[in-house]
Amino acid sequence: MKIYSLFIIMTLTLGLRAQAQGKPVYLDESRPIEERIDDALRRMTLDEKLAVVHAQSKFSSAGVKRLGLPDVWTDDGPHGVRPDVLWDEWEQAGQTNDSCVAFPALTCLATSWNPQLARAYGESLGEEALYRNKNVMLAPGVNINRTPLNGRNFEYMGEDPWLASRIVVPYVQGLQSKGVAACVKHYALNNDEEYRHQVNVIVSDRALREIYLPAFEAAVREGGTWAIMGAYNLYNDQHNCHNEILLNRILKQEWGFDGVVVSDWGGTHNTMEAVLNGLDMEFGSWTNGLTWGASNAYDSYYLALPYRQLITEGKLTTKELDEKVRRVLRLMFRTTMNRQRPYGALCSEAHYEVARKVAQEGIVLLKNDKLKANGNLPLLPIASDSRILVVGENAIKMMTVGGGSSSLKAQHEVLPLDGLCGRFAHVDYARGYVGDTVQSYNGVTVGRSLYDLRTPEALRAEAVEKARQADVVVVVGGLNKADYQDCEGHDRRDYAMPYGQNELVRAILAVNPRVVFVNISGNAIQLPWVNEVPAIVQAWFLGSESGHAIADVLSGDVNPSGKLPCSWYARLEDCGAHATGSYPGTWREGKQIIDEEYKDDIFVGYRWLDRQRLKPLFAFGHGLSYTSFAVTQAVADKSEMTSAETIAFTVSVKNTGEKAGATTVQLYVSDRKSSLPRPVKELKAFRKVFLQPGEQKDVVLTLDQRSLSFYDDRTQQWTAEAGDFEALIGFAADDIVKKVKFRLK
Ligand code: BGC
Fold it and tell me: Residue 443's pLDDT is what?
């Protein structure tokens, strides 16, 4: 009681002192933020309120100059801070101080299965954003990889809601620890790019809750994200930037989100819906700014003059507007108005170190067979004195430029060929094929031409000729950031490897079987020669340190430890979205809407493969190492748990090989019997562990009631039914090495 009174007296004294000094409450940092918000709100005029809820330029919205409240500056996201664009247009502004560190794409981050690294990624990005005076990063993306054709999967964290949740939380916390808001996107069900403004998703409540929402829920409830971006597509016949169910009911009411809902750029379509259904800030509606339509495009925004008119006509009160402004003020107080914010740094050594580490830990050794022609040894790692032939366009193509809004102006990007030349003494190169020669995006140009006018036959012949002499041929191929590949705005048209790379690989194999294929992509691709190529490495889009990280892994300086965050289907038909014929949906008669019913329901990724008893080419969670690991023991701390308890599994993992390395122990829950159909197994815990040769460590994996629950759409609740469960413990979805039974009482 005494302490409480003391507290009140102190608060009053501080408040009085501030007032006595003439400082208004909203500027008084000793006051709670909510009080400051109330005070600022009271002082604002109607026009000032309207101004803060919509854009004033491509990436910013106005503050309140009269009150000294700063503008909000957003920027993409998610792999580095995008270069400044012109006030009204997408074209870059041509600044000379906005080159950044390009961090690896988020799929690579998820592949590290390393939450500490995700934290470091967020912190580094936050520091770069601070330097560039951005207080909202339009990042990270956590849409679920439902089909490998989605052009934007590279910006997301894979197919599994639990893995994505564990990576998004520390990313958000790391970023926001620097006083820069995360804006988690694209909420929700934005799982294809093709016709992204028109797809109306029809999905069961179970699939929505169990598959598509958990990463967003974790970002809000655990990560405490200060902003969320609505998605372009529709759900329940309503655009997601003003979707009553997703925004009002689930995000704000159920999860208690107190931050701002930001529209995707041009994702707002209707003033009344935007006002009533939870949108707080409108961006990008007249995406071409001043050159399109109205004399001041921003005044024509749905949340600008049209909103004002509804208020002045008495069709709306300012109730909703005040609520939106409150949220925007909260964002300002949390970011630019926070005087405790640290300082930023651009392109620091520490940021490059984080970028390289993420790239190293995200590279996946998909296969590394022993090869007769190599003395019955695997091809990788490559000995330092080997004569290496590098083949392929992706060895010399910058991947930080292109792909849509995540395109960057990197201070440097070490190309794979340069990284390999720096590490090995004898490296030769042959182009092998020509794919996409464009090396510019929104005015950011690479300044190095990729044009090559030779015929495909001539390019292939050169590679084959040189391959005859090589100890090892490293083909660096895959996809790129061009339209219809790994790029925003469209999906891939098919699952096949483009640009005649299959023919190239086969022609090289015919003269030299010692081939390593390094695949650069954000997605799985069909690999028709998978049984003939002895070593395959998945290298995603690795950012600034790309070439270094690839050389680190191919040379064995770094032991690979990445584990796939998505299933690698042998055929596209093995993916649920395609097997059920529900992708890409059907045009609604006479309407500009495509209905896409998610008939694969909760069976996405490995959940579908398990159910259909299909074998993937490479399973979710798969990734090899230059050493080997074994689980020597797995024990639970109890055999029966109540719903109020947790259950802990102690798993002893041993490095049984000769090199130091890391692996990730994965725990999948299998519900033996339930009143609704459930996946055969679902990932619910994991831990990455680093071990010296011969070393053994215990890792503890814990489950709680939610880990055992499904979303019961009959009662609209998460439910864990009593009965028998199994913890399936292993190193991949198809490599379960221990099973531990337990009961829920
Ligand atoms: C993308 C967003 C991005 C925004 C601003 C949109 O087209 O979907 O992810 O943040 O543009 O560049």
Answer: 87
pTM of the model: 0.96
Give the list of residues 6+ apart from residue 361 with CB closer than 8 angstroms, or none: 111, 112, 114, 117, 561, 562, 662
Instruction: Give yes or no for residue 82 CB within 6 A of ligand 1.
Output: no
Residue 423 located in a structural domain: yes
**Coil vs helix vs strand at 603:** coil
Enter the tokens of residue 158: 């894979």
Q: Which helix (H) or strand (E) holds 75?
A: strand 72-75
Residue 20, pLDDT score: 46
Q: Are residues 542 and 409 in the same domain?
A: yes
The answer to whether position 312 is within a domain reads: no
713: annotated active-site residue: no
- pLDDT tens digit string along 323-382? 999 999 999 999 999 999 999 999 999 999 999 999 999 999 999 999 999 999 999 999
Q: What separation in Å is there between the alpha carbon of 585 and the centre of ligand 1?
A: 23
The CA 664 to ligand 1 mean position distance, Å, reads 33
Ligand 1 centroid, distance to 405 Cα (angstroms) = 5
Question: What's the gap in Å between 634 CA and the centre of ligand 1?
Answer: 45
Helix, strand, coil share of the chain (percent; to 5) = 30, 20, 45
Residue 153 confidence (pLDDT)? 98
Pocket probe for ligand 1: among 264, 406, 483, 490, the residue whose CB has the most ligand atoms within 8 Å is 264
Residue 574 CB–ligand 1 contact under 6 Å:
no
Which residues are CB-neighbours of 322 under 8 A, at least 6 positions away? 41, 49
Pocket test for ligand 1, best of 84, 281, 405 (most atoms within 8 A of CB): 405
Same domain, 544 and 675: no
- For residue 11, the model assigns a pLDDT of 46
Q: Which residues of the chain have pLDDT under 50?
A: 1-4, 6-18, 20, 290-291
Q: Ligand 1 pocket, 58 CB below 6 A? A: no
pLDDT given at position 446: 82
Judge residue 202's burial from the number of C-beta atoms within 10 Å of its C-beta, 0-12 exposed, 13-18 middle, 19 or more buried.
middle
Quote the pLDDT of residue 295: 59
H/E element, 440: strand 440-441
694-706 confidence digits (pLDDT tens)? 999 999 999 999 9
Per-residue model confidence (pLDDT) at position 289: 52
Which residue's C-alpha comes closest to atom 11 of ligand 1?
Answer: 265
Catalytic residue among 76, 264, 552, 600, which? Answer: 264
If asked whether residues 633 and 535 sit together in one domain, one would say: no
Number of domains in the chain: 3
Do 520 and 642 fall within a single domain?
Answer: no
* Residue 486 pLDDT: 98
Domain that holds residue 726: 627-745
